Amino acid sequence: MTPAKPWKIRRRFTVGVAVALMLPACLVAPPSALVHAQNGIVRGSSQEEAMALGATLDRLRPLVRSTVPGTRDVRDLEVWIQDSPGLYSFPHASNSEAEGLWAESEDRILLARDADDLERTLAHELVHASLGDEWKTLPGTLEEGLADQISTVLVPSGAARLRAGRLASAALATGGLGLTLEVEQPRTGSTWMARITLSGARPSENPQRDVFRLAAGLSSTRVTPASKRGYYGLAYLLVERIVARQGLQHLLDLCLSAKEQGLDAVPRPWLLAAADLEDNPESWRQAALEGMGADELRELMRMHPDFVRDAVVDHLRDKSLADLDQVKIHLTLRESHTTLKLDQDPEFVAQVRAALGR
Ligand SMILES: [Zn+2]
User: Fold this and answer.
1) 232 alpha carbon to ligand 1 midpoint, in Å?
2) Ligand 1 center to residue 141 CA distance, Å?
């Protein structure tokens, strides 16, 4: 039995099985097209869709096995791609927020067709599906952090986007993050500066402690979507730091040591020491900001394109500019000093031009 992910939907399964006995029609019908890939059965709405996903499965599953120590084998793995991932068709059973689910009782991975990054989501779910009993003492939300961390290694094309989302969520959960926007007009020598603070509701007083206690990946854990994102972010931050400093095997060794000592979960101080983090929100917030480089800041802007663009457009709207090309627009993540030269980002400049009508 694998740790967190099966728990994730166990409660829903219990409800689902009871209802399914009375109303078998509530079970979602398998997608119509089926492909036997080397590493499992893939079902999708068309043969092309199933074949494409089958090729991805055949690439990723052996990589998960060779990358993650302490894995187990799932003999009859199936991967289904659906509009909304779920086993049952009655509305409250669907997990509309989830892009992927691992249903251990069925040996089945369920993926959302419109997932932000289908390949990365499959890698994440394959990690849940593959973790052996050795990992069972990984506490709270950390299995989510582990699945995310492995997914960034196996699908590097999606790494910056995932890191941006997770690290920003970790920073928001522990106090927020500050940006400085500077718009310089060399022709007049004037520089306009704005400080932008991104903040959100903290999941709790000490989210850096609760991430070890709450399994935010489980549907039975009642947390708001924003809190869930915060815990996923903190879990990712912790695992990423441990893997970067000590290696993945060290994280497994901590799990095994806890088991040998008869503990249910790896003690928090062991994990904090391995990640070089302290037991206070500010230590985690600083670590999250340290982890955000230019690639992550760029992705953060892509995910939330409005807030910086609107500020720039508002500032430039009344200006009589001979040539927008001469304006320098810099965005800095204050505490990490990571700076983006937005005036050299064609996508951003095009958006500003379109909004200004120039
Ligand atoms: Zn997960």
Assistant:
1) 9
2) 9
Whether the CB-CB separation of 14 and 225 falls below 8 Å is answered with no
| Residue extent(s) of CATH 3.40.30 domains in the chain | 4-133
Q: How far is the CA of 95 from the centre of ligand 1 (A)?
A: 13
Instruction: Give distance in angstroms: CA of 237 to centre of ligand 1.
Output: 15
Could you tell me the distance, in angstroms and rounded to a whole number, from the CA of residue 116 to the centre of ligand 1?
14
- Output the CA 356–ligand 1 centroid distance in Å: 42
C-alpha of residue 58 to centroid of ligand 1, in Å: 20
CATH number attached to the domain at 4-133? 3.40.30
CA-CA-CA-CA torsion for 133, 137, 139, 140, nearest 10 degrees?
A: 40
Residue 208: closest CA among 285, 291, 292: 285
Residue 20 structure tokens: 């399914």
CA of 6 to the centre of ligand 1 (A): 10
Provide, for the chain, the percentages of residues in helix, strand and coil under a 3-state DSSP scheme, each rounded to the nearest 5: 55, 15, 30
pLDDT tens digit string along 230-259?
Answer: 999 999 999 999 999 999 999 999 999 999
Query: How far is the CA of 166 from the CAs of 69, 113, 172, 250, in angstroms?
Result: 24, 22, 10, 22
Q: For residue 179, how far is its CA from the centre of ligand 1 (angstroms)? A: 30
Q: Separation of 111 CA from ligand 1 center, angstroms?
A: 11
Nearest to 181 by CA among 287, 292, 327, 356: 327
Burial class of residue 166 (count of CB atoms within 10 Å of its CB; 0-12, 13-18, 19+): buried
CA 35 from chain center: how many Å?
Answer: 28
Confidence band, pLDDT 50/70/90 cuts, at residue 356: confident
> Does the pLDDT of residue 220 top 50, yes or no?
yes
Coil, strand, or helix at residue 189? coil
Query: Half-sphere exposure of 130 toward its Cβ, with a 13 Å CA cutoff?
Result: 23
Estimate the crossing angle of helix 159-173 against helix 142-154, to 10 degrees.
150
Q: Which residues surround ligand 1, an ion (CB under 5 A)?
A: 144, 147, 217
Q: Going by C-beta distance under 8 Å and a sequence separation of 6 or more, which residues neighbour residue 231?
A: 140, 141, 144, 173, 203, 207, 210, 211, 214, 216, 223
Overall pTM surpassing 0.90 (yes/no) = no
